[in-house]
Every structure is written in structure tokens, then in C-alpha cells.
Design goal:
membrane; 186 residues; globular; 8 helices; mainly alpha; transmembrane; binds zinc ion; Inner membrane protein
Length: 186
């Protein structure tokens, strides 16, 4: 029960990535099973985005950058606000992709550029960039893909869903090993 007492590391506990991995599989099973109302679909998809991020952050985020975590979690969900102009007015999508042009490396570059230039906003902007990057990991393997290289290219870049699950499985294993090491060295 020491992990419960050690609240600073609670999000790194190995059980959480394992549960997250299982939940992502279950959510995607539900999404593939039938067409859901858009609000339900959105809630399920955003939940899977957050679970994906939980696994990958537990595996990869250095302890010294833990202060970026709230901003990263915000960025993971907030990037999908860019779908609203697309839904309401049919604007914002690249010609070759069903997702908005802001679902691209350019958004990450702009956020990182802002973080480099604006010292006081460094943590929020860097955290949001991490969140957007993690968001794109899932979007690459679901739906129509993302216009990753916009404005250089309108083409939707996609990745196989099995690859996404593989990344999550490796992330889960890495998070478990990382937590185990942290527990042993504590
Ligand atoms: Zn998205």
C-alpha cells in the first residue's frame, strides 16, 4: 500500500497502465460495434485519448517534467475543440483529410516555439505540446488519420490500429518496469 502513501508517484503505479490498456481496447470495441450519437462517440474517444496518454506518460515523462502533466492532460482533450468549426460550418479540414488542419505537427511546433520564446508560459505551452503529440498518436490509427504535415501536404497520414495497440502495450510494459525500478530504488 506504499504507493497510495506516495502520492507523488501514484500515476506511475503499474496497475494503472494495465487497466488503461484494457479500457482502451474495450472502448474501441464499443466504438467499432455500432454508430453512437456524436456526444457519446466523443466522450468515449476522449476517454481513450486520456487513457492512451496515461500509459505513455507513465512510460516516458521524466520525473523532473512532472509539472507539465496537468497541461499535457489539458492539451490531449483541448485539441479536439478544433472540430467545432468543422462540425458547425464545414471549415478547417485539409482537403485530403477528415480532421482539422490543426491536427498536425505545425501545432506542436507553434506550441514549442512559444514555449522557447515566452519564458513565463514555458510550462503551459510545453505541456500542451506534449498533450497534442500524444493526442495525434491515437488519431493516426483511428478514423480518417491526421493531416500530419499540413501545410506542406493535405494528405491524411494513417497508422495501423495494431501498431497503436503495440505502442500502448510497449508503453504499458515500460511503465511497469519503470515503476518497479522506482519502487526498488526508493
Ligand atoms: Zn482528435
Amino acid at each position: 500500500m506504499r504507493w497510495i502513501q506516495d502520492r507523488r508517484h501514484v500515476w506511475l503505479h503499474p496497475v494503472l497502465p494495465l487497466v488503461a490498456l484494457a479500457l482502451v481496447g474495450a472502448i474501441d470495441g464499443l466504438l467499432a460495434w455500432r454508430a453512437w450519437p456524436i456526444v457519446v462517440h466523443g466522450a468515449l474517444d476522449e476517454s481513450a485519448h486520456l487513457l492512451t496518454a496515461l500509459v505513455l506518460l507513465a512510460a516516458l515523462l521524466p520525473a523532473r517534467l512532472r509539472h507539465l502533466l496537468p497541461w499535457a492532460l489539458l492539451g490531449i482533450v483541448a485539441i479536439d475543440v478544433d472540430h467545432l468549426p468543422l462540425y458547425f460550418w464545414g471549415v478547417g479540414a485539409a482537403a485530403g483529410s477528415g480532421r482539422p488542419v490543426t491536427h498536425s505537427l505545425l501545432t506542436i511546433a507553434v506550441l514549442l516555439g512559444g514555449a522557447a520564446l515566452l519564458r513565463r508560459l514555458r510550462a503551459p505551452l510545453a505541456g500542451l505540446a506534449v498533450g497534442v503529440a500524444l493526442h495525434l498518436v491515437r488519431d493516426l490509427a483511428t478514423g480518417p488519420g491526421v493531416p500530419l504535415l499540413w501545410p506542406l501536404s493535405d494528405t491524411a497520414v494513417t497508422a495501423p490500429y495494431a501498431g497503436y495497440l503495440g505502442v500502448l502495450a510497449i508503453g504499458t510494459a515500460a511503465a511497469v518496469v519503470r515503476r518497479r525500478r522506482a519502487a526498488l530504488s526508493a
